[in-house]
Amino acid sequence: GAGLPRVPARFGGRAGAEIALSSRRRCSESAGLQSRRGRRLARAHGIDYSVIVGVQIFGCTVCLLLAGLEYVASRPGADVPWLDWLKDSGWWILPSPFFPAVIYYSLLWSEQRSKSSASSPEASSKKDD
Questions:
Q1: What pTM was computed for the model?
Q2: Which of 9, 24, 47, 102 has a CA 20 to 30 Å removed from the CA of 117?
Q3: Pick from 102, 82, 91: which is nearest to 62 by CA?
Q4: What is the Cα 129 distance to its own chain's centre?
Q5: Helices 49-74, 98-119: crossing angle, 10 deg rounding
Q6: What tens digit of pLDDT does each residue of 63-96 get?
């Protein structure tokens, strides 16, 4: 056809061109969907983000605890035998990704709380007063 791009015969000729066009359409449609959403924070319905934020905060606490214990164990003259396994180990790096995650999920949680408070019957009755 006149509207189809030229595709070498080894790639399937006309059939290959139709596949290429349909693939291009799917890519542009999905890009259009993403641009219509227009936001980076995509909340999933039915998820309680307070639990996720709590777990992330626990991970941050473990990270800080490990960093503090490693600092104590690595100090010159530190004679704490039960912390020898932590001396210059870097174990605190393992839970460090919890810090950006807690920020991200806190934003989602605050959005969830604001939307739930706006849609609650108590909020609408306060507006009427």
A1: 0.56
A2: 102
A3: 91
A4: 40
A5: 150
A6: 999 999 988 888 888 788 888 888 888 888 888 9
CA distance 62 to 64: 6
Kindly report the number of other CB atoms within 10 A of residue 102's CB atom.
20
Within 13 A of 2's CA, how many CA atoms are on the CB side?
A: 0
Joined tokens for residue 45: 């319905």
Averaged pLDDT for residues 49-74: 92
- How far apart are alpha carbons 61 and 65 in whole angstroms? 6
Distance (Å, whole) CA 64 – CA 71: 10
Per-position DSSP letters for 8-68, written without gaps between them: -GGGTHHHHHHHHHHHHHHHHHHHHHHHHH--S--PPTT--HHHHHHHHHHHHHHHHHHHH
End-to-end alpha carbon distance in the chain: 67
- Length of the chain equals 129
CB 78 within 8 A of CB 68: no
CB 102 within 8 A of CB 54: no
